[in-house]
Request: fold
Amino acid sequence: MTNQELEMTTTDTQATPTLLTDAQRRAAAPLVYGGTNETIGAQIHLSAEGVASHLRTARNALGRRGCSRPVLAHALLTAREVRPPACQRSCPDFTVRDLRLLKALAEHSLNEDIGRAIGVPGSDVRTEIDALVAKAYADNAVHLVGLGHAWGILGESAPSGAGSRLEPADSTAGAE
Reply:
């Protein structure tokens, strides 16, 4: 092999470090579509308990032990361990209040903390979230966080193209 051929076959980029194993990433990827442990398990041929174990390990690896599923989805997407969900709809016309709620949902596990972030009592948070989920045509709060990433509202989208360790987004993941 000549030096020129050698130069053409090597890359200057180093592999992106990953926090999760392939099995953990495979279990976590459908989460951003709002999948339950049962639906994810059916998709990847694993028990719901096996999915729960992988997600628990992912939480620990991401430093989010005990966090809610929306916070876990946000952490997975921010760390680029999984891709945002495929979405063919454009981003709804969110108000500033809607955007604050979406950000709070992605960052806080407790309704009291989300409520504090958006200026409502914790007892009203579920109603606020449900309204935002409906406005975005999301399946649930976890899917809403995933869509927030897909629309570029929360964090950056996962990289695309050669060299990415992520598989292309599958628009059927999480659908059942």
